[in-house]
Model the fold of this input.
Amino acid sequence: MSDMTNQMASMAPARGRAQPKAEFYAYFALIFAATLPLACLTWLLIAARQMRMPEKGPISRAWSQARIITPMIFSA
Done:
């Protein structure tokens, strides 16, 4: 009987980082669109309260939130 474990391990596909698919981009766009109004409101309230411009703009804030939330959906 031959030992096939070493050969099977070398045949396994390499694990790499897969390219994001169209579904990921669709969810990202939806989440970005949903977080943009809230990010604008938050940015406006912070600017009014502190009487200066916040360091991150509303688009940057919404983009950050979408980058955090979208992978959470796909990892679940």
Summary: Residues 19-75 form one domain. The chain has one domain: 19-75. The chain has a mean pLDDT of 86.
